[in-house]
Amino acid sequence: MNTRAAGIVLAGLSALMLLGPVTTAGADELSEKAVKSFMEYAWSLTPQQFSKPDGSVIVIDKTKKSEVLVPINVARDVIMAGRLSAHAQICDLLDDQISNHRALMRREEVQHKWTPQQLVYISQLHLTTVMLLTGRIKLVEKQGDKEVVVADDKSPVQSCTEEQRKKVKELITAYVAASPKPKAAAASAAPPPGTPAARSGPPTSTGSTNTVTESAADAKK
Fold this sequence. Notes:
Elements: H1 3-15, H2 32-45, E1 49-51, E2 57-59, H3 65-68, H4 72-90, H5 94-109, H6 116-134, E3 137-142, E4 145-150, H7 162-177, H8 183-189, H9 196-200, H10 210-218
Antiparallel strand pairs: 1-2, 3-4
Helix pairs in contact: 1-2, 2-4, 2-6, 4-5, 4-6, 4-7, 5-6, 5-7, 5-10, 6-10
């Protein structure tokens, strides 16, 4: 990645600056160029294959980038969700961080328009955002260019006050509440078969990618 691209993503990081104040606003502050830079970093860190807990494997053809990446507006939403997860990590709200990630993935799964490869990429974009904002990965200079490396120091780059912690928890609680319910929870809350609502209601999950998104979230612990 060249120096100009690195400068763009650093500007994006400034727009996403953590903990101060914590709000859900700010998506419009992240320019298209910054979003694309985050997407490039996530793509560079996306594995060629992802093994699911059931033993099946999702293969990602790195020569078909355009078929795996998602639209800019979707990527921006993913990055902003990643920002909230990064707040949670800094505030030591690990359960909330996982809940936030899973809520994001359910939002995308219920649309039934992403391939398994794209869902892996969406999860990777979220994770890359978290790692960039918390200092788990960083930009380093190598022969005049910039590249992404895993940082040796894994401690959060910022502290979190009790007020900030409370606000982050409130925001994630609201985000999760506004998201589709997990499949099991949705089934238990569904009306009896035969009712109008039961016949017309859409499914809450594709079911095919739950293990992918949950294992990716758990890996962030």
